[in-house]
Amino acid sequence: MTRTSPVDQSALWNGPGGQVWVAQQAILDGLFQPMADLLVAELPETVMQLLDVGCGTGASLLASAAARPATHSTGLDISAPMLALARQRAEAAGLDADFIVADAQRHPLPSAHFDWIQSRLGVMFFEDSQAAFANLHRAATPRAGLRFIAWRSADENPFMTTAERAIGDALDLPPRVPGAPGQFAFADGGRVQRLVQAAGWKDVEVVAVDLPCSIAREDLPTYVGQLGPLGLALRSMPEARAAVLRHQALAAFAPFIEGDRVRVDAACWLVRARA
Length: 275
Fold this sequence. Notes:
Strands 1, 2, 3, 4, 5, 6, 7 and 8 form an eight-stranded mixed beta sheet that branches. Helix 8 (158-167) crosses helix 12 (239-251) and helix 10 crosses helix 11 (228-235). The protein has twelve helices and eight strands. It has 275 residues and is α/β, with parallel strands linked by helices. It has helices at residues 9-14, 16-23, 25-31, 33-42, 59-67, 80-93, 129-138, 158-167, 189-198, 220-226, 228-235, 239-251; strands spanning 49-53, 72-77, 97-101, 114-120, 140-151, 202-216, 257-258, 261-274.
């Protein structure tokens, strides 16, 4: 298959990208807590087999498993270091969960097995999204539910691109290719609806949601200096130069700071469908 993204997703998430998400798990879980809460609110009482796609270090899976203790939960992710932490967290919490290190687009999941499939920001990275959702459809029981949260456009999420806009010209960042695997791959809600339907899912709804998210102000330097393509670029350059750019980037976040918190409305899609 011809690669549609300048980024090798497996190398990224099993290397520096996945390692920094492990290291900063607490900050990221706090920032995205409203998304995990939204998925729990969507979860029926009757679910017995749950699959969390791109579960990362486990936040949304752990929240759902804790809310539905009779449910067996399976986490699937391409990142071995992130899943290792998710497994530790599930075991420490005494939750009924198992984990698979694999690509959900290609992994031979058991047929007609899961009655609920969900994802928090984990489905925008497939090389072939329609093939991935078709594979998930094969793993779903009749009338199983699908719920996932994905980012809307970069323009609607200025917080997520603030540092990039402030210092991106000074860094050699991978180009953003519209619709290519990555954070904003699902910006076009109509396209998302079409590809999920084409993969076999029914009653597809793509609903715009704006979720109030925040992190502690004291965690902002770590967020800016460590996470994402920009953090990776800063970590790879001489510290004196990186320090100047970090300071410049941090100054650009002033509009989001309220007291001791950094607040942002996350502009997302909530997608609902059934098998």
